[in-house]
Dicarboxylate/amino acid:cation symporter (Flavobacterium celericrescens), 410 residues
Amino acid sequence: MKNNKLFILIIVSLVIGVALGGIVHYQFPDAIESFSKNIKLLGTIFIRLVQMIIAPLVFSTLVVGIAKMGDMKMVGRVGGKAMAWFISASLISLLLGMVLVNFFAPGKGTTIKLDDTSSASELVENSKGFSLEEFVKHVIPKSLFEALATNEILQIVIFSILFGVALAAFSKKEAKPVLKLLDTVSHVVLKMVTYIMWTAPLGVLGAVASAIAKHGFEVFTLYAKYLGAFFVGILALWVILLTVGYLILGKRLLVLLERIKSPLLIAFSTTSSEAVFPKMVEELERFGCQPKIVSFTLPLGYSFNLDGSMMYMTFASIFIAQVYGIDMSLGEQLTMLLVLMLTSKGVAGVPRASLIVVVATCAMFGIPPEGIALILPIDHFCDMARSMTNVLGNALSTAAIDKWETKIEE
């Protein structure tokens, strides 16, 4: 019941946000700038409250999960299954983006002109430092405290796995005090999640009202071709994911979707899949997944399993090439696909990471990276769909791996 109340509140906030943003954009054009800036603070407060608890939650649950597995064979087995799922899901998503952007060709013969690329300058600058060296630095933590302070999920995951494996090597008696402490911490943080989630409707209202006030509704007609093709892609990806989910979970898939409807909606409205990470831990455990599987697979998924973002990356990169009239051969497109597969794995938790990866990849293949300025005005709306898809992909992977492991244990 509580879950439904929150869901209804979020829907109401979404509608109010759209209405408020529309009124400000069309009736009070002078107030757009200050209104957007101020109302967006509601979204910022919610996202920051969630970010505050992500690091302690990932660390405590992952260490406890691995140490409770106890058996290193099991850690390897679950990790192997998770990575096999993540890699195949990523490849399917990237391929889908490539096929659809070639089929619909939304960038060919476009009337959208690039007069001002200043909006893209910050992203272009950010992506210049994106190299193999940067990737390694991003993945391996220099200090646990720096990783915790900057919410680098991937770095926290790597430290936690090493810590958990080392802790599991001790006898149960020796490891018990540390385990008990971290177990209690994870439960306290999950209790905090329950309180923080009640600020989600405000966050949704702020994020949506700000976006609509700034861009108005015309942005949809201007980019109808691009958005239309992209949403067809997202829809196709959902069909694939849900079909695979049904083949593995059967009718329990509907129970899972019922459980994660609030996280899906929050991710959609706030364009942040990170914002629902703590709530996802809670809901997947309620769905019946073993805590040790959830606490191991979900943080890994947040680093490696971003299906919506993957599809978007090939879609956006080839769209920019089409706008500039650059014909890419099938070989070049497949090479780009593999480059995206690798570069995208180290940017989990980086704001607008998908865009930075697209800019870096365009530069690598001789496509003018300033072209990103073309899709910036509607990126917020694409981001809503990709965040929601990322959440669905991670829920399905965790539930599937839990089912396989339960069978083995039985």
In short: The two ends are 33 Å apart (CA to CA).
